[in-house]
Amino acid sequence: MSNPLVHAFFVGRAAAEIVSEKLENALTDALSELGKFDAEAREQLRQFTEQVTERAEREMEVSTVGRSTTEIVPQSSQPADLQATIDDMRAEIALLRAELQRYRSNSL
Description:
Order of helices and strands: HH
Number of helices: 2
Radius of gyration: 34 Å
Strand content: under 5%
Number of strands: 0
Number of domains: 2
Largest sheet: none
Helix content: over 70%
């Protein structure tokens, strides 16, 4: 290239294209990170609400287990499977033991 003006034009054009590409890549990366952050925040919020719900249900079960559960149930609505009833009672006993242990350890 013999003309310095033409050479300066092409150098300026190349510089503008490169700057444009770099800006485009930076913007794309920033939007990608923002999308990833949003997805992670939503997932953490979902997990948090799930944990809160589980804990609330567990606490509700614990508080209802402490109440008297001896109620008369008609024979027709009683479960037919005796083993399932025994398993449920064992689970309630284990839950009560765990709560009693937690109460004892907190009161010391």
